[in-house]
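Changelog note: in this version the structure field was regenerated for every chain. One regenerated record is shown below for reference.
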Amino acid sequence: MKRITWRILRDFEFGTTTVTLTGILTPDEEPRLADLLFEGGLDAPLALIVDLNAIPPSNAATVAAFLGRWASDRPDGPELVLSVDTLAPTGRLLHATLGNRQRLRLAATGESFRCESSDPRRAHLRLAADNQSPAAGRRLIAHHCRNWGMHSTADRAMVVASELISNAVMHAETEVDITVAALANVLRISVRDRTKGVPRPTVAADSDQLAEGGRGLPIINALANDWGFFAFGDGKTVWAQIDSERP
């Protein structure tokens, strides 16, 4: 019996995170998968897609039941989408057994996820690796903090987003994406790039760079209530969390 394994990929264009599962999910493996899904949720994706095409039909109902419980326990989490070939045995089984569960959606493999998030309190933006990106991130934060009524959070959040993006652009030198989510009384900002390097403080080269960012991780540490990072197969995410009413 092959124990369950996984692979995680981030779609920078559409702001989704895909977890591809392979093998058999046993009760002993459930805590490991729960931790993985939690980390995937820290990406603050518009949708967390779980690809079940490599799960055998005999284990599909077990996996789906676990995912349903996991999603139900996290009402502020991203939409959970199960991706499967609906004509294959696993897909037919899930289609017949899942029904219309809340927080869990079945989608055919290859179905487009280009539509806007069904969750109005999540937003995403893909950014180039250039010095205009921090300003674009600040505009995204300002717009949605205003729409979400998180006015007391906006100033800190704009600075944090700018620093996260500046650090990624300077050190990763790849395209990045930013996703922002309003979770209860918390704003979560996640910035993803295409490298696995540990985030390190940014040293500003000149005053123009300081205007756009470049003060780096010490500023994030000072302004955010919590922050961290994790690496996956296609890059890393640095995230920060800001309470809307910080003590």
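Spot check on this record: Residues 202-214 have pLDDT under 50 and may be disordered. The beta strands are 5-11, 16-22, 47-54, 79-84, 104-108, 122-127, 176-183, 186-193, 226-232, 235-243.
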